[in-house]
Design brief:
The complex is a heterodimer of chains A (about 110) and B (about 120).
Chain A: E1 5-7, E2 10-13, E3 19-24, E4 31-37, E5 44-50, E6 53-57, E7 65-68, E8 75-79, E9 88-95, E10 104-105, E11 109-113
Parallel strand pairs in A: 2-11
Antiparallel strand pairs in A: 1-3, 3-8, 4-5, 4-9, 5-6, 7-8, 9-10, 9-11
Chain B: E1 3-5, E2 10-14, E3 19-21, E4 24-26, E5 32-39, E6 46-52, E7 59-61, E8 64-69, E9 74-79, E10 88-96, E11 106-107, E12 111-116
Parallel strand pairs in B: 2-12
Antiparallel strand pairs in B: 1-4, 3-9, 5-6, 5-10, 7-8, 8-9, 10-11, 10-12
Chain lengths: ~110, ~120
């Protein structure tokens, strides 16, 4: 499978715990994005990387959220001290920088905070 | 600030009917890109089309066609002779500026299309 891979697919946690999601993009794609989607809404931009550089981060993203892409390949999204409002589907996507906006999405990681 | 409005929330049609999904956008930039994505029941978003603000030509791809009108800030999507497999949530999205430098997309809330046999 050469698509975007996300793990875990589903995470249930208690409020206050930390969670980490991993995304493996399509290998030749140098851009990687994180979006969040809640029920009945469109995806909401969180952050994106070009290679290992984090180029933009949404102002909606609190300090409890951090994303990394250490070697320009896979990426992790960590949420510290989770809150019930963090419950959502976290989507990862990748693209070539020459084809901006043509995002290839993974199946998402669903977070449920109890 | 950029904004995408998809006023229709749910549409239900019978197979073989034509259906048009509306999208209205707001932006202050003169350079921008518009997109449509499909999210089938399996959940994975799939890219359908990208259009830049300087190209108002309509586009047709098989049963799909797109009508871009800057005068009304609309980028509507028509499916001709709909099929059950077209059932999905369809999102319109906008990206401002040179897409090569900025690919942050702003999505609308989506339109749920149900095609009945």
């Amino acid at each position: 499978d050469t698509g975007v891979s996300q793990n875990p697919r589903h995470k249930i946690t208690k409020r206050g715990q930390n969670v980490t999601f991993r995304c493996d993009p399509i290998s030749e794609h140098n851009r990687l994005y994180w979006y969040r989607q809640t029920l009945g809404q469109g995806p909401e931009f969180l952050t994106y990387f070009q290679n290992e550089a984090q180029l933009e981060k949404s102002r909606l993203l609190s300090d409890r959220f951090s994303a990394e892409r250490p070697k320009g390949s896979f990426s992790t999204l960590e949420i510290q001290r989770t809150e019930q409002g963090d419950s959502a589907m976290y989507l990862c996507a990748s693209s070539l920088w020459t084809r901006g906006g043509e995002l290839f999405f993974g199946e998402g990681s669903r977070l449920t905070v109890l | 600030a950029q904004k995408v409005t998809q006023a229709q929330t749910e549409i239900s049609v019978v197979e073989k009917e034509d259906v048009t999904l509306d999208c209205v956008y707001e932006t202050r930039d003169t350079t921008y890109y518009l997109f449509w994505y499909k999210q089938p029941p399996s959940g994975e978003l799939v890219f359908l089309i990208r259009r830049n603000s300087f190209d108002e030509q309509n586009e047709i791809s098989g049963r799909y066609s797109w009508n871009f009108q800057k005068s009304t800030s609309s980028f509507n999507f028509t499916i001709t002779a709909s099929q059950v497999v077209d059932s999905a949530v369809y999102f319109c999205a906008l990206s401002e500026g040179d897409t090569g430098a900025n690919s942050k997309l702003t999505f609308g809330k989506g339109i749920t299309l149900s095609v009945r046999p």
